[in-house]
Design brief:
The protein has about 450 residues and is of the alpha/beta class. It is about 40% helix and about 15% strand. The protein contains 13 helices and 15 strands. It has a 7-stranded mixed beta sheet, sandwiched between helices. A 4-stranded mixed beta sheet has the order 1-2-3-13. Helix 2 packs antiparallel against helix 10, helix 3 runs parallel beside helix 10 and helix 4 packs across helix 9. The longest helix is centred in the C-terminal third of the chain and has 22 residues. The chain is globular, with a radius of gyration of 21 Å. The structure holds pyridoxal-5'-phosphate. The site of pyridoxal-5'-phosphate has 15 residues, from helix 4. The site of pyridoxal-5'-phosphate (PLP) has 15 residues, from helix 4.
Length: about 450
């Protein structure tokens, strides 16, 4: 199948690894799982164990995981593992019985969200949460128009794949979708907020001109797949206000930004002073256990609930609720939001030093423990350089540090470690990157 040029850091099977056992395992995987699956790294990793910030390969080698917001409070965190095991040994069943766990989880999550969000609905994945948010928005607005950013990823269901341009959008059947640029820095501090609100207005005008009624704007509030754009706080306010004035609902997709990742707030939308109509939550909620959710306004849920019923066999089951409750407790008890803020700043400071030392290192940006580093050409053009970025990602992996790349060109190094990263780990990431850059 060769290299998937649309996916940064995708394994290219036309250059198989030299190791016989690894090659055989890759072949077995391809023959069993089929051609749609992708692997990371040019020498794909066979992992067998995780512990805190560390992942261990089958040969026993430890890797510092600087790319994981799934095991967000640390791999195999003992409190989460214990909560899952205890609940699994007590009761797990579908969600049509009364159970305390899901109620406590809903209370805990709602307490962190704006008062206007009255209900929690549970799913198993972020894709499913966005799919449900989509249905809720359609039923409330009676519109069909969807607004997303140009390289967004929101998930894999039929409806959500059509609003996830980073995986390639089929034009047929996507007439209701409009894509706008993510708010990229353009030198002047507040310019991207202005650009963003103009782009929203343009999309609304275009929808209206085509007889499309706005339904939902989905934003990943850190723009992780668009290239990581987090600043300045407040930059999304005017654009979101314009969209809502046109009758559309605003869905904050917090699968990437949520649960303390940005350090400055529990949720990414809070950094921008936004009050969403719907919030979708995924990956980090169960620290590896599949549990996800939608927070929704009372009137939006009411309209949907009148028209249909909602049942999700596994969404919010007792074991999932236990995993999520334990994850929330760890974030609080281990001060992981504050840690993300502090260590994220140190990491960006260390990486910014590299941008003065190496011309190919461009802007270093992000918030908390979500960091993007532009890799650009070594000339006055400073053009995106995805080839060198891919080389750096693979050399880092050889050096024992797992990162990846993102953005429409794949030239932005994406560093997104579990929130338990400490100062020594942050220094190690910068040191290894320094030696990788020095050897290019
Ligand atoms: C912003 C965003 N939304 C939604 C999803 C989909 O989540 P899941 O893979 O759990 O379906 C992802 C997954 O990467 C994501 O990054």
């Amino acid at each position: 199948m060769g290299r998937d040029t649309r996916m940064p850091n995708a394994f290219d099977d036309s250059v198989p690894p030299a190791d016989d056992a690894l090659r055989a395992m890759i072949q077995r995987r391809t023959s069993l799982l089929g051609p749609a699956y992708r692997l990371f790294y040019q020498e794909p990793l066979h992992l067998v164990k995780g512990d805190g910030i560390w992942l261990y390969a089958s040969d026993g080698r430890p890797y510092l995981d600087a790319y994981n917001n799934v095991a967000s409070v640390g791999h195999c965190h003992p409190r989460v593992v214990e909560a899952i095991a205890r609940q699994a040994a007590t009761l797990n069943t579908h969600t049509r019985y009364l159970h305390e766990g899901v109620l406590e989880l809903a209370e805990r999550l709602l307490a962190t969200l704006p008062d206007t969000l009255a209900h929690m609905m549970f799913t198993c994945t972020g894709s499913e949460a966005n799919d449900l948010a989509y249905r809720l928005a359609l039923s409330f607005t009676e519109g069909t128009g969807i607004l997303v950013t140009e390289n967004a990823y929101h998930g894999l269901t039929h409806a959500i794949a059509k609003i996830s341009p980073s995986v390639g959008i089929d034009q047929a059947g996507s007439e209701h979708v409009r894509m706008i640029p993510a708010p990229k820095p353009r030198g002047v501090r507040d310019q991207q907020g202005i650009d963003f609100s103009h782009a929203v207005s343009g999309a609304i005008e275009d929808m209206v001109a085509h007889g499309i009624k706005p339904a939902a704007m989905f934003l990943d509030t850190v723009f992780a797949s668009d290239g990581i754009f987090t600043d300045p706080p407040g930059m999304l306010e005017e654009g979101v206000a314009r969209w809502r004035a046109a009758g559309g609902l605003f869905v904050a997709d917090e699968v990437q930004a949520g649960l303390a990742r940005t350090g400055e707030a529990m949720w990414g939308f809070q950094r921008h002073g936004l009050i969403p109509d719907l919030v979708t939550i995924g990956k980090p909620l169960g620290n590896g256990h599949p549990v996800a959710a939608v927070a929704v306004r009372a009137d939006v849920a009411e309209r949907f609930g009148r028209a249909t019923r909602y049942f999700n066999t596994f969404g919010g089951n007792p074991v999932s609720a236990a995993a999520a409750l334990a994850t929330l407790a760890v974030i609080e008890d281990e001060n992981l939001q504050a840690n993300s803020l502090k260590i994220g700043r140190e990491l960006r400071r260390n990486l910014s030093d590299l941008s003065s030392a190496f011309t190919i290192v461009g802007a270093v940006r992000g918030s908390g423990l979500l960091v993007g580093v532009d890799i650009v050409s070594d000339d006055s053009l400073r053009a995106p350089d995805p080839v060198t970025a891919a080389r750096i990602v693979n050399d880092m992996r050889r050096g024992g540090i797992l990162i990846s790349a993102t953005g429409p060109f794949g030239h932005v190094l994406k560093i997104r470690p579990p929130l338990c990263l400490d100062a020594a780990h942050a220094a190690l990431i910068a040191d290894v990157l320094h030696s990788v850059l020095a050897k290019l």
